[in-house]
Amino acid sequence: MPRVDFDGPLTGRRPPSCLRVAPGALDAWLTEALLESRKECGFATNAYGPDEDVNVYLARLLAAHGRGARHPDARGGAEPLLQPPVRSRAGLALWYRRNGDDRLLALGLYRRGDLQRRRRVPFGFTPSQAAARDLAHGRACYAAAACLLRAGAPGTRGLAPVLRKLSLAFPQYVRVLETLARGRLGLGERLSWCALREIAAAPDHAAAAALDVFLDRLTEHQNAPDERTRAALAGAARRAGIDATPWLARGES
To answer: Are residues 176 and 215 in the same domain?
Structure first.
């Protein structure tokens, strides 16, 4: 593949691994599904500036998540911002990036603030308060990672513009993953009790009884067709809501 520096023009440096398009079937399918989801939710690729590099990043992130990748750096609640570890600049940038990824996946795919908590809405918060807090945390994590990478060694700067774009449009990218999750992955769909009752409705005993009578009259008409059985079959078919014309026209099946 061409070597691209996402911080500027073509150079001899390879982009970070999370920005390289992988040849796997899952990556290809997720990339296509991601592009379609972006269009469906009104946040199409490049609609508000070049962001194809974000698509590559998100496709790789989703593929890794689908394969069961877990990152020990991910923390729940406000811990990523309140208690960052003592690390090098690159290590701290990775910490914030992993926690931004965790918030993005949790909010977009599962409607949760992070993948660590057990409750969808923490105690003491309303759903809207929890959602606003989690969106702010995800945006702040990506912003901190972008700043650290941009000020770091030249070889780490290619990822900074991608994380900055994720930070600036974090709610929109969450909506993209929500569209992908509901429309392509079938995640998070729930049926109400009313919908379940419609699917598993109680049988209509009157209709079942009318159908039994129709089958009895049809058998009688087939065994001894005459005007009496014909009239009885026509009446039973009318009560059961069945078109008995084929049998009435032939006189027998």
So the answer is: no
